[in-house]
Structures are given as C-alpha cells and as structure tokens.
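Side project, low priority. Logging it here so it doesn't get lost.
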Amino acid sequence: MTVAGAVPVVASWTEPEGIRPRGTVVVVPGRGEHAGVYERFGRRIAADGYRVWAVSDPTVDEARTTSQVRALLQSAPSEETGETGPPPRVLVGSDAGALFAAALAAAGEPGIDGLVLAGLPTPTVGGTATWADELTARTSCPTHRARLDGDAAVRRGTLGTPVPREWFDRARAAAITVPVLGLHGAVDTLSPLDAVRGWYASVPGAELVSITGGVHDALNDQTHRTAAATAVLFLERLRLGATPIARHESLSS
C-alpha cells in the first residue's frame, strides 16, 4: 500500500507483478473514515488484477475529494498520483461516499464506467449514542472493529451526523446512465434496506444485492469476502460490456 501524508489521503494497491491491470477502482470512504480503512478491501480487489485507489472522506472536504477522484479517472497520468489505471473505471463508495459517488455519476462526471455503492444512506439517518454503538452499527467483523477502535485517525461520533442534503438532491437516480451495483446489509439499522429499494429501482441499470445479516459497512462487515467477490463479478461483467459470464442453468427437464 502506498499513501500520501501521515494520515492516508490517497492510498493505493496494485495488481500482482507481471499482471496487466484489468481496470481501475476508486474507493470513496464514508463519514469519519480515511483511505487506509479500506486496505483489506483494496488488497483483495487488487489481487484479482485491478488497480485500486482510496481517496479522502468527502464530508470533510468535498472539493478535495472531487479533485482526487477526477485525477484518478482521467486518461492521462495525474500530477497528484503520478499514474492512472485503465478502463473500466469504477467508483466504489461506502456510506456518505456512496451518495457522493452517485451524485458525481448523476452529474455526468467524465470517466465513470460504473458504480459500486455500499450502505447507501437515506435522508433520515439514525444516530448512535456511544462509540460502542457506532462500532456495532458499522460492522460485525471483530477484526475491523478492532481496526477502527485502535485507529486515532477515525473520527468518532460522525456516523450519526447528517449527510449534506444537497447530495441527495444531486444523486438523481434516473440521471445515472452507468451500471450500478448496490451492496446493502439486510439488517442495516442506519440505512434500512427497504428504504433504499426505491432509489435503486429508479436507476436504469442498477442491481441491488442484500448481504444476509449484514450491517452498515457492507465492504468491511463479517461477510467482507462475499461482498468483495460480488464486486469482482460486477467488475468482470463491466469489462465485457455487462454481459453475464456465469449463468445458472436450469436442471429441470
């Protein structure tokens, strides 16, 4: 993993040596997080041949995050990172980062070939009374809970703060023209699954996958391997123009 700055602002994970990168993934963190929080997810996606970056929390400095994303989506090497990745170029957002990514796509931001949205927030987001409550709402994975609990750069108490209202206005589902994969915990208490179904149903090219027993951070929950594998299948389909690769055959005669 390479990072810029003492607290990771931009983190990156590269494909295995000798493997030509299969695409580009840019991860946008959620409230209170930073780029390094997605190391486990980034390493796993990179191991499958994708070049992965994670940027800063957009709720801290929206302009900075927008600039980072644009630099990584452009076709020429960026001044900030010194390199770029090949298409398809996909934004992966979690929590507020998911809404931020959706808003960029709805506005027609150049270079976005697809979206993976985990734990998409709703305008009526529930709060958490204590840090222990926040950890429980974020993830049921003991490893990730320990990572967050021991990370001084994670901003505690932010998960219950409102997401900017204008982001909901800008993330117009009907305006998104790229393929979208939604990953959502089936027992997410902060953004209930039923509350996001309507939004995904309004996106022309969306699919919504619920994670059984999953809470808010679908990418870093106890079922993080399944979430990552589902994301990789989506990325592989994008490379072939969204054509299904593996099909379930009927066994009935």
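Brief comment: Helices lie at 39-47, 62-73, 96-106, 131-138, 142-149, 165-170, 193-201, 224-239.
Revisit when time allows.
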